[in-house]
TrEMBL record:
Low complexity bias locations: 194-210
InterPro entries per UniProt: DIOX_N, IPNS-like_FE2OG_OXY, IPNS-like_sf, Iron_ascorbate_oxido_reductase, Oxoglu/Fe-dep_dioxygenase_dom
A Pfam cross-reference name: DIOX_N
GO biological process, one term: small molecule biosynthetic process
Entry superkingdom: Eukaryota
Protein name (Swiss-Prot/TrEMBL): Fe2OG dioxygenase domain-containing protein
Family: Belongs to the iron/ascorbate-dependent oxidoreductase family.
Residues in Fe2OG dioxygenase domain copies: 210-321
């Protein structure tokens, strides 16, 4: 029984290809899923050159002239994609001392304005109703010009594709750790189920739906050193939070300094230092809700670098889920035995206290609510006061 989260496990994904080591890997994964809720992965097959092509360009991206960064402002985007200046976001009512570019899977707009002359019509791609407001979250990135930052779009795209591949592979390992057919969740990601799981695309109630491949979200983050006279608040890189943007998070810590901390079950902060050539993996609110709290969306935070420390750069990749899916629907793919596994593996009983409000059962609604609440100016501009008030009251 692992009662104290003394360390965050490091899983070697190359063990998945070795029949002797694989059972041990799955055991470690179970303990990471049902106990700590955080892990590192090494030998993840994301090529170092793909990572460095993007990370090497981050300083230049954030050093673009102010007017070029402003030209990519999130305010330009109904999809909440783009640049936010230093300390423009808050967590727990306090400013987060970081600067960021919110990016995503590059996708065209699908939302149809129901008021537009030819824009309405609510049947498309099967029965999908693209006039629903949450579809407006989906759309293209804002890019720096090729002249200002040569090779950036290509580097970002390769990175996105490689981490997406890792995310698919990792979800398959989770299915194995859960003891459910490999490929059970494939159609959430717009993928054909693998052949070994032909019966698995139906939920426990026997229904099947197809989804559009979701939009993953990627943040490019810069945390500068805090000023020497900073107050206690001056150290909040990002305040304590659970990830609300996706299913799983794959975080690449670019800089070598400390900062990321994870809340243990005994309410102490465990440092999650950068380990070269690894990604940190954790689970989002939707995952916690789908497993009825068996797998926790573990709380974490970033302490801003001290005055003499180096700037911290990091890149979380939030694996998306279909906007027109509900948490109740996801839950149907998770057998009862998984929901009970937390107690068996860690000796800690399910503490299913933080589920999504039933009003936001639809993942698109909960995502729209999240974005509206964290970027009220963007919400008011593109969605109007009524929507802003609805999601913030
Ligand atoms: O910057 C980091 O290391 C973590 C950031 C994070 O937790 C987030 O943006 O959700
Ligand atoms: Fe996070």
């Amino acid at each position: 029984m692992a009662s104290e989260q003394s360390a965050i496990p490091i899983l070697d994904l190359s063990w998945a290809d070795d029949s002797k080591l694989k059972p041990q890997l799955l055991e470690q994964l179970q303990s990471a899923l049902f106990d700590v809720g955080f892990l590192y992965v090494r030998n993840h097959d994301v090529p170092p050159s793909t990572i460095s092509a993007l990370t090497d360009r981050l300083p230049a991206l954030f050093d673009l002239p102010g007017r070029e960064r402003a030209a990519m402002s999130k305010l330009n985007s109904p999809h909440f994609l783009g640049y936010s200046g230093f300390a423009e976001e808050t967590t727990l009512g306090q400013q987060d001392l970081r600067e960021q570019f919110d990016m995503g899977t590059e996708l065209p707009v699908v939302w149809r304005d129901p008021e537009a002359v030819n824009g309405g019509g609510n049947v498309d791609e099967g029965d999908r109703d693209f006039t629903k407001l949450y579809w407006r979250l989906r759309g293209p990135n804002q890019w720096p010009s090729e002249k200002s930052l040569p090779g950036f779009q290509e580097a970002y795209t390769s990175y996105h594709d490689a981490v997406q591949e890792l995310s698919h592979r990792f979800v398959h390992l989770i299915e194995e750790a859960f003891g459910i057919p490999v490929g059970t969740f494939d159609h959430f990601f717009g993928r054909q189920p693998t052949s070994s799981s032909s019966s698995s695309e139906t939920s426990t109630n026997g229904t099947t739906r197809t989804f559009l491949p979701p939009q993953h979200r990627i943040k490019l983050l810069k945390y500068p050193p805090s000023p020497p006279n900073a107050t206690t608040n001056g150290h909040q890189g990002v305040g304590a939070h659970k990830d609300s943007s996706g299913w799983l998070t794959f975080l690449y810590q670019v800089s070598s300094g400390p900062g990321l901390e994870v809340l243990s079950s005994s309410n102490t902060w465990l440092p999650a230092h950068p380990i070269p050539n690894t990604f940190v993996v954790n689970f989002g609110n939707a995952f916690e809700a789908a497993t009825e709290g068996a797998v926790k969306a573990t709380t974490h935070r970033v302490v801003a670098p001290g005055p003499d420390a180096e700037t911290r750069y990091s890149i979380p990749f939030f694996q998306g889920l279909p906007l027109d899916m509900t948490v109740s629907e996801v839950r149907e793919y998770i057998p009862e035995k998984v929901k009970k596994m937390r107690g068996e593996v860690s000796g800690v009983q399910n503490q299913s206290d933080e589920f999504l409000d039933p009003r936001w059962d639809c993942l698109g609604e909960s995502q729209l609510r999240k974005w509206v609440r964290s970027h009220r100016d963007v919400a008011e501009k593109w969605y109007g006061r009524d929507v802003l008030e609805y999601y913030t009251s």
